[in-house]
């Protein structure tokens, strides 16, 4: 934790500010280890404070090593605590610090300068420690096991919602604290919806069924997608699936330090375009994963961050044809010194579920 506090202090020098104030829960947890739902991290050159209310004081004392625990209340609000520190400049998470927060601070803290951190905290979090990678890998194992568990449930007449519920129940029962996002279970023509969250539609013979899901383990997310066919796949389904698989595996093999998200996206996109399906691949190739399901680095057409060892990303191309269906195949991947390691171990060859 001291290393992470040091990172914040390096940021003070870089931004030429006196303090950093952290609101966002994922950033707060990363820099302090605090898992409560209310609290603020305030770090200066000489002080590190975790500010929370009465409900979380005991918890904060046990979790936040290296921090002074400060109680906030209606008699001692955050602005009063900051005012007593005589700070004149404060770094804020501009994507999370609201207009209302800014009005409140500037009206109560005369002369205070608010400085946007420009995503610097998320950039720090992009490269994972071995401890973080272990948590993500454990969440990925749970997702793999859930896929094998749920396959027998995928058959005509079963609702998409029932599949999603079974996935979540299995992962929670086996150690997950929750779902990392609202699961996508999209069947038949609905599989052409890239974010077709599970509905009351019943699965039918001949359907593509796309399962995009993940879980949270010790705060860290997993994310995986597989697409199956209920019954025998027709020629068109096989062609689409083969194209997506080729794009996914080719982009995956290009993952290494120094390559950008834009370059990876181009590799997969070119394969899909060459097969005549370019207009049906409308999202980015992937994204970073960690405490949040979508975080840096970007793996898409604007992804200009070079991959570094310790980054965890997804590789997930897709083809989505309205009134027909769609395919997405997604792996969770660690960038390593000389390439990559795939965390998603579930096989990717087309599964045709016998009915």
From TrEMBL:
GO terms for molecular function: aminopeptidase activity; metal ion binding; metalloexopeptidase activity. Keywords: Hydrolase, Metal-binding. Residues 135-336 form the Peptidase M24 domain. Gene3D superfamilies: Creatinase/methionine aminopeptidase superfamily (3.90.230.10), Creatinase/prolidase N-terminal domain (3.40.350.10). Its EC number is 3.4.-.-. InterPro entries: Creatin/AminoP/Spt16_N, Creatinase/aminopeptidase-like, Creatinase_N, Pept_M24, Pept_M24_MAP, Peptidase_M24B, Peptidase_M24B_aminopep-P_CS. Residues 4-127 form the Creatinase N-terminal domain. It is an enzyme of class 3 (hydrolase). It holds the Pfam family Creatinase_N. SUPFAM superfamilies: Creatinase/aminopeptidase, Creatinase/prolidase N-terminal domain. Belongs to the peptidase M24B family. This is Peptidase. It comes from Clostridium formicaceticum.
